[in-house]
Amino acid sequence: MNAMIEKSSAWFERYLVPPLSAIASNIYLQAIRDAFIIFTLPLIIAGSIFLIIANPPVPAFAQFLQAHAGIQNAILVPFNLSFGLMALFLAFGVAYSVAQYRRTEPVQPGVLAMVLFLVASMPVTNLNSLTLGTILPYLGGQGLLIAILIGILSSEVMRWFRSSRYTIRLPKSVPANVKRAFEALVPAVLLITAIWLLEWFVSSHTVTTTDSSGHRVTLQLTLPILLMKVFEPLVVVQDSYPAALLEIILMMLLWSVGIHGMNIVTAIAAPFWFSTLAANAAAGPAHAHGIVTEPFFHIFAHLGGSGATWPLVIYMLRSRSAQLRTVGKVALGPAIFNINEPVTFGVPMALNPLMMIPFVLVPVTIVTINYLAFSFGLVHVPMVMQPFTVPVGISGFVATGGDIRGSLLQFFDLAVSAVLYYPFFKAWERILIAREEAAARGESERATATAGLSSASSGVRRGAMSR
Predict the structure, then answer these.
(1) What is the 3-state secondary structure (H, E, C) of 417-448?
(2) Which of the four pLDDT bands, split at 50, 70 and 90, describes residue 214?
(3) Which of 46, 174, 291, 379 has a CA positioned 20 to 30 A from the CA of residue 207?
(4) Which residues contact 317 (CB under 8 A, 6 or more apart)?
(5) Angle at 340 between CA 94 and CA 354, to 5 degrees
(6) Are 308 and 302 in contact (CB under 8 A)?
(7) % of the chain beyond a pLDDT of 90
(8) Is the CB of residue 96 less than 8 Å from the CB of residue 107?
């Protein structure tokens, strides 16, 4: 068994680690991931709190707010101006993060990206005729794709101009801040003009679509609307079981070779997840139907951390293996808050062919169960964003907008995880116990041999003294 495990580990390191590491080290994916985590996540979570208040899980309060729409709309103002503007902040964040990875000045590309995003999102018309409510959807979930593209574009174009001779260079005697402002002038003017002309061309066309109440309406086309129309089939496909399955398998394969799988997949899928989540939040618990969102994975699949390893921690606390028992004690506290790096690298799960099987199999099974539960309406779909560190039980209730069945689904998933992990855990435990016993025997034999040598040496010294 040991030889087979070592041979499999070598194969993984030789053939699987290099391509997955290359994906993980891509600058754009890292920048998008950082931008979501640093610049939008706090706003999404803060906005979600007001969404919960406006749609309380207590029926009496919910009925009161439904009867007083003015109060409910007032509570939703912070939600609309935080969660609802996340694409605007994401444009800044992506440009800022790309510039940081390129080791160039990051603030100017970030500010330029926000301006470009606003130019791209507004129909070229008399702005006095527009209302914030009309364009708000495209500054949030539906504008994420264009925000990412503009963020990358503004950062890379500004970097290129700064390193080329097509920019304004002032004498060395000019203060550094003034020089930086003029260096950014040429790319800023060119990009704003280009995006404005493109948006003007797009705005000269209209599109017929369906509003939230199901009525057909004609809208002046904008770049976010156009991009959403182009990628609409992809958004629909992404919110499906095959897509969820593919994403969870990729996450766990990356984790299996020691790469943070959730971060990598988030960088690719986040625009689609957050678009679906924004639609769920706007529809409310009773009418939301999008399933594959960020909470679908973070809250309902990664119970106790990636791989749903909560039950493993319990098993390890009672293990006969000293290594597993020690890891279990260390991992217990973090597991409560869904952090499982001690388990991933202490058991280990990463690069361990035996434990990699359930490490992938358990999340795949849980995702399947959850998808069926949500699609059949047994549990409200996730609609509230929250920190992934919220303990299991509480997070399921909050994520579903106050549906207690969300918590029950999490506990059912934990039971499934415990059953699937058990045989693999016992097999790995036996291997570790055998290794620990062999190591103890070797230590004992070395101690005996050392004592024998010491005794023989003393005998020789006594013999020499007697002579």
Answers:
(1) HHHHHHHHHHHHHHHHHHHHHHHHHHHHHHHH
(2) low
(3) 291
(4) 325, 328, 329, 332
(5) 110
(6) yes
(7) 32
(8) yes
Element (DSSP H or E) covering residue 365: helix 353-375
126 conformational bin, left if phi > 0, alpha if psi -120 to 50, beta if neither: beta
Report the distance separating Cα 231 and Cα 363, nearest Å. Answer: 28
Q: What is the DSSP string of 139-192?
A: HTGGGHHHHHHHHHHHHHHHHHHHHSSSS----TTS-HHHHHHHHTHHHHHHHH
Q: Which of 303, 317, 334, 308 is nearest to 429 (CA)?
A: 317
Amino acid occupying residue 147: A
CB of 307 within 8 A of CB of 424? no
Cα 4 from Cα 9, distance rounded (Å): 9
At 21-31, the pLDDT tens digits run 677 678 888 88
C-alpha to C-alpha distances, 70 to 49, 75, 213, 280, nearest whole angstrom: 18, 9, 19, 21
348: cis peptide before it, omega within 30°? yes
Q: Which SS3 state, helix, strand or coil, does residue 220 take?
A: strand
Q: How many helices (H) and strands (E) does the chain have?
A: 22, 2
Look at residue 281 in the predicted model and tell me its pLDDT: 83
Q: Which residue has the tokens 């098993």?
A: 315
What is the Cα–Cα distance from 145 to 59, expressed in whole angstroms?
37
Quick check: 144 pLDDT over 80?
Answer: yes
pTM confidence score = 0.72
Q: Give the pair of three-digit tokens for residue 125.
A: 């018309």
Mean pLDDT (the chain, rounded): 84
In Å, how far are 30, 34, 195, 430 from 146, measured between CA atoms?
Answer: 18, 17, 11, 53
Q: Which pairing describes strands 206-210 and 216-220: parallel, antiparallel, or unpaired? A: antiparallel
Mean pLDDT of 90-104: 93
How far apart CA 305 and CA 299 sit, in angstroms, is 9
